[in-house]
Batch of 4 targets.
Target 1
Amino acid sequence: QVQLVESGGGLVPAGGSLRVSCAASGLTFSTYDMGWFRRAPGKEREFVAVISWYDSTLYGDSVKGRFTISRDNAKNTVYLQMNSLKPEDTAVYFCAARRRGSGKFAYWGQGTQVTVSS
């Protein structure tokens, strides 16, 4: 079965950097778009970034210019490099997989907590 496992979350001071990873298994990784989403306490889930199976990227407005999504198809892993972190970036970060050509992210990880202290 498909599994997405996030790692790399933690506590970081404002202005700092953190990289979270998502290891995928059970799917043909190179044929999937991979996305990052986040959910802050009391808020709805928010789109963060997506990287397509052919390496095109798209970012949410709140992270544009600070976050970078990348993928390593040899390792079945997608990364989210987060720089210039702000307290409002505090959230549980989830990765998700969408088969190319599909309109829906069908697979989700369990999430990793990122906390940015002020």
Note: The longest strand covers residues 91-99.
Target 2
Amino acid sequence: QVHLVESGGGLVRPGESLRLSCAASESIIGIVTMGWYRQAPGKERELVAVSGDRTTYADSVKGRFTISRDNYKKSVYLQMNSLKPEDTAVYYCRLRNTEGYVYWGQGTQVTVSS
């Protein structure tokens, strides 16, 4: 069963923008946090931005990326502006609910290259 569906990745040039979307299935209830992580080749998965009681951003994306949520649609978005080659990675949506279950999306590729 697919719990999180992501979309919006792609190939862009440095300085351009992308918007990622992630929608949770109706079966998931009690959502506490929704966020985005990324994993570049040869690197560990890292936090990009998380929305919960407060919003947290990685230092590397502050001022360029914005996370937003639509609780009614059980969705989270990541607006990425001023993209850099070092933002190239597979981006994963992550959700945690009140029971402590953690769900991951399948990942969407973001490539920033001239």
Note: The mean pLDDT is 95.
Target 3
Amino acid sequence: QVQLVESGGGLVQAGGSLRLSCALSGRTFSVDAMGWFRQAPGKERETVARITWRGGSTYYADSVKGRFTISRDNAKITVYLQMNSLKPEDTAVYYCNLNNLGRDYWGQGTQVTVSS
């Protein structure tokens, strides 16, 4: 059974920082990419950042470029999202995603709330 364990969400003031972590537990297999998505109330889920596992290529949504940094630990099969200069519009449930051979796996989600 594949399980993605997320941690690091919480409440922070605007301008503050948070670091999200997502670790794969259970069954081990090759990873093509991991990333973070978010969903705010009344909005669709959107990609925040993504990183390929072998080459480490990254993608960021325009709204977070320059503020968020995604990184990975290959040995621990863990992905991190460092979020700086947080804004109230970053408030959402953040979901970890793992892609393996075209199949997506999701974490349970962690709430990030940024107060103004």
Note: The CA atoms of residues 93 and 111 lie 4 Å apart.
Target 4
Amino acid sequence: QVQFVESGGGLVQPGGSLRLSCTASGFTFSTYGMNWYRQAPGKERELAAFISSVGTTHYADSVKGRFTISRDNVKSTVYLQMNNLKPEDTAVYYCYRAYYSGNWGQGTQVTVAS
């Protein structure tokens, strides 16, 4: 079955950086676009970044210029490099496949605070 395992979150000071990883399984990774979503406390889940199967990327305005999404098809892994983090980036981050409506992974918590 399709599974997503996110990692790399943690506590970081404003202006700091983190690199999130998500390893996916249960499908042919290289043929699907992948998303990073995030859900802040008390808010709805929102799309942060997307990468297509051929590497085209899209970012939410709130993270553009600070976050970079990438993928390694050999490792079936998608990454999210997050720089210049702000307190408003605090959220649980999830990866999720395009054209999919099944279960989500457990996510990884990112907390930006001094």
Note: The longest strand covers residues 18-25.
